[in-house]
Give the backbone structure.
Amino acid sequence: MASTQPLRALLRHSASARGSFVGTSGRSTVTNSLPIAASHAGASFGHQSQPLYCAHSLQTAAGFQRRAISATAPKRVISWVQEKISGRNEAKAAAKLVENVNKMADSPTWTAKQFEEELDWQTSQWMAKLPGTDSNELQQAKDAQQVIKVLIEQLGEGATYGDIAKMDRRAKLKLVIACKKPMSEVEQAISLFNQNDIMHRVLRNRKKSGIDLPKDKESLQMAMQMDGMKVMTKKELEEMKKLYEKFQMAQMKGES
């Protein structure tokens, strides 16, 4: 019967190789012990025994490699993936903004249904994850979304801000009960619709006048600052003046 010493030597070397792959922390770390063990095993077994040990070594190495990769995923790779996803989302948001600007400029009127679609886009999951997204603005959009859905049920998809502005207190109370929101949130949703309607008027007027339409968020804000007051009604200007006065009063109280 053949001696068992070569087999014992192989087991000792194999155990040594496995030990060298596992560090004190329990994580897999690749070292050069496996090639050393393989050379010793070749000397013990001779030519015919090498294929058996080589196959075993490859399987063992593959297993350790998989554990090493899964246990120590490089943070820079995760960061790179996150940056790529963020970049794609930002590009998607930029393209969507241009699409919405053109849609507004082409629409003769701006309806509650169209405003609802804007809110759906602003509150979508991938938009919420964009860098720099204001959590307060996001929450306002979500609150307004619920109010506008009920408002559409009451006034119809084709309702405009002009129709909503004609609502008396009784009609607004009916809306409050239906959407289960306080009057302050209902008023806030109507105010957001008004701002969206003013934006529609600015873009519509720009297209009619042959002025270039905004291509990004910054140029859209600039267009609103330059042309917003030109398209606002007398009542809207008065309401804006009151809001500005309230804002100043709140600032003065905060400073005192």
Summary: The chain has a mean pLDDT of 74.
